[in-house]
Structures are given as C-alpha cells and as structure tokens.
C-alpha cells in the first residue's frame, strides 16, 4: 500500500503559520498519522505557504517533495506546468492557502478539483 500524499498549494505572501499547521495536522490525523505521509508542494523560492508547510511537515520527520517551477533564461516562470506536475503525483488531498490575487494557487486548485482530488481551501 502506498503512503498517502498531501498536496499543499498556497500564496507566496501567506504568513499564517498557525493556520497551515492546524490544517496539516488535521489531515495527517485523518490519514491515520501514517509515518511516511508525503507532503508535495511547489517549492516557491520566494517563501510563503510552500516553505511554511514544508518546515511544519518536516518537524514531524515526515517526507516532503518540493517541485519548483522552471524559470527560463528570460525570467519567465512556468508555474502552470509545475502545477500540472504536482497533480501528477496523485495526491489524496489538497490543502490550498490562497490570498487575493493568487493566480497560481487558484490554477492549482482548479487542476486538483478537475482531477477529483479532495480539495480544501483556506482563504487568507
């Protein structure tokens, strides 16, 4: 049996660490506190929800997988392509932490819902 996978997507401007912590641990409880539950996220180099979530998950010695967006030589960021890669990990749940104007997060939410993934949204 494969370990459960949790997808975290969120704004690079997200700062509410407590909210992410509560929701991540609620999901972990829901998944039976599986010792190899994997947190997948977009590894935004600017910080925010991805980096906060990774730190929280790792504090319980749980594995994480960051999949950053490719950036070409002209500085163009390929966030939607990265979001599609996140969905390809076949997550069991998606936790989303958007703020107003979070286009990339909302794209990932849409993809997760279209893939039939149980998606929970926490507006910031």
Shape: globular
Q: Note poorly predicted spans.
A: none
Which structural class best describes the helix and strand composition? alpha/beta
Please tell me the CATH architecture by its name.
Answer: 3-Layer(aba) Sandwich
Mean pLDDT: 96
Give me the count of strands.
5
Termini Cα gap: 35 Å
Order of helices and strands: EHEHEHEHE
* Fraction of helical residues: 25-40%
The CATH topology label is Rossmann fold
The top-level CATH class is Alpha Beta
Strand order of the largest sheet: 3-2-1-4-5
Secondary structure layout:
Blueprint: E1 5-10, H1 17-30, E2 38-41, H2 49-58, E3 64-66, H3 79-87, E4 93-97, H4 103-114, E5 118-121
Parallel strand pairs: 1-2, 1-4, 2-3, 4-5
Structural features, described:
The chain is globular, with a radius of gyration of 13 Å. The protein has helices spanning 17-30, 49-58, 79-87, 103-114, and strands at residues 5-10, 38-41, 64-66, 93-97, 118-121. A five-stranded parallel sheet has the order 3-2-1-4-5, with helices on both faces. The protein has one domain (5-121): Rossmann fold, CATH 3.40.50. With 124 residues, it is α/β, with parallel strands linked by helices. Helix 4 links the parallel strand 4 (93-97) and strand 5. Helix 1 (17-30) crosses helix 2 and helix 3 (79-87) runs parallel beside helix 4 (103-114).
């Amino acid at each position: 049996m494969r370990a459960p996978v949790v997808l975290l997507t969120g704004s690079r401007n997200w700062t509410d660490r407590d909210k992410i912590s509560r929701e991540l641990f609620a999901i972990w409880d829901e998944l039976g506190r599986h010792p190899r539950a994997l947190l997948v996220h977009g590894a935004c180099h600017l910080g925010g929800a991805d980096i906060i979530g990774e730190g929280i998950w790792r504090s319980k010695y749980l594995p994480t997988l960051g999949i950053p967006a490719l950036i070409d030589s002209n500085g163009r960021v390929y966030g939607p392509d990265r979001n599609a890669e996140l969905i390809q990990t076949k997550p069991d749940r998606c936790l989303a932490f958007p703020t107003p104007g979070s286009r990339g997060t909302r794209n990932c939410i849409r993809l997760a819902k279209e893939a039939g993934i149980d998606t929970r949204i926490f507006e910031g």
